[in-house]
């Protein structure tokens, strides 16, 4: 269910420190808009060891901070985070932990969702991060959407890109430049989420 004042949209909710995850988010947005669904890019504030970091309500650069109302109103969701010891980063987990009200109301049930990530090393925990990010989305009743092997980039990539979701390998120089296969996989997820959301419309189960 989308809000009465906003047309259907894919919410691309991410946390990014070095622009790698942000870069994937932008490519997912392109894929969604190519498929005819508006993309809404949103991020979350960082957290400190004992509290939410004290920051302006609008970030100095990048996407605005997400509200739970924007989460509730989305037609589909793409959730992105850098890999942190094989799991999502604390700021994104902190935001997800605030969504009990949405869980109780069932506002995300039946909506398609996908996940994406970035890591420094090729075997830096990307797949465990993607899989663990799916768990709270399953609790919300969302329909988990990956990238099928009909996407040829999955068989061509020597960097990031998995059937569980788009990914980027930054390397020891922490490069945020996406490879062509990484871009292709990200755009494919955006198209898939958009196409499924548009096909489902209000007939979610």
Brief description of this entry?
The protein is of the alpha/beta class.
Overview of the molecule:
With 205 residues, the protein is an alpha/beta fold. The chain has one domain (9-200): 3-Layer(aba) Sandwich (Rossmann fold). The protein is 36% helix and 16% strand. It has helices spanning 20-34, 68-73, 90-96, 100-105, 126-139, 153-156, 180-200, and strands at residues 9-14, 38-43, 76-82, 112-119, 143-144, 167-169. Strands 1, 2, 3, 4, 5 and 6 form a six-stranded parallel beta sheet that branches. Helix 1 links the parallel strand 1 and strand 2. Helix 1 packs across helix 7 (180-200). The longest helix has 21 residues, at 180-200. It is globular, with a radius of gyration of 16 Å.
Keywords:
Rossmann fold, globular, 6 strands, single chain, 7 helices, 205 residues, six-stranded parallel beta sheet, alpha/beta
